[in-house]
Amino acid sequence: MKRTIFLTICSLFISLFSFGQTSTEVFETESNGSANFIDNGVIFKIISHVGLFDIQANFPNTGWNGTANDNRYIDNSNDTASPPSFSIKTTSNLFKVNRFWMYLSALNLDLTVAGTLTVTGRLNGITKFTQTKSTGFNTSMATANGYTLIDLTNLNGQNYSNIIIDELRLTMGGGYRYAGLDAFTWVKDSGIVVLATNETTSSKKGLSIYPNPTSGSLSITTEENAPAEVYSQDGKLLKTLDMKKGTNQADISELPNGVYILKTPSGSSKIIKK
């Protein structure tokens, strides 16, 4: 029997990303020691898993292009914890990653040591992709100031740049004990639902779903006459339901097992039940 799960999330502020906005964060306006950064109106957190990662702004000309105006980046300076690992994460938005530059070395900044970089994209705590890069790293300061381009459009022969995530996790292995990240290019795209962090169990406009979880049949009670839309977790519209004020019967048995988003209009904002 199919078991389709809806999780109830109410009292959300919802908006949509602008169409196809690609942005590159070079960290030059960020504060030294900060554990977050803001780019294109989105707040990203720097989460340290092993070692302490934050914004570095103490060493001029050490960013990916080595100019006087390129002084800031994310790194784990003077931290001996191993294997180094950190995430770039936002809890209020979803995004896609295009590319970024990384300086990967021993603690003494020796680029010639052998190591690995594991790149993992996660959404709501679920791994959407993971790849370990073990070759092709820059070993000379003469090129890109020692940084290596990590291109998610072609990472180990795969394109991960169109996968929607809320967390990019990077883990170093082998001889790599120091990591610096600069020129983080990401996409703020249309059709990606933006959820605020104030998720509660009540809503100004009632919307209830029963049963939850369901094998396919649903009773949906709403306070408005408006169509409802069913989305996958990666933002794809899968089904439109005709809703009237009161209790409506619906069926999503044709959808595979998983978690989906039921979205209905509510004034100028949206209310989503997941």
From TrEMBL:
Keywords: Signal. Pfam families: Por_Secre_tail. The keyword Signal applies. It comes from the Bacteria. InterPro entries: Secre_tail. Residues 1-20 form the signal peptide. Residues 209-274 form the Secretion system C-terminal sorting domain. This is Por secretion system C-terminal sorting domain-containing protein. It comes from Chryseobacterium shigense.
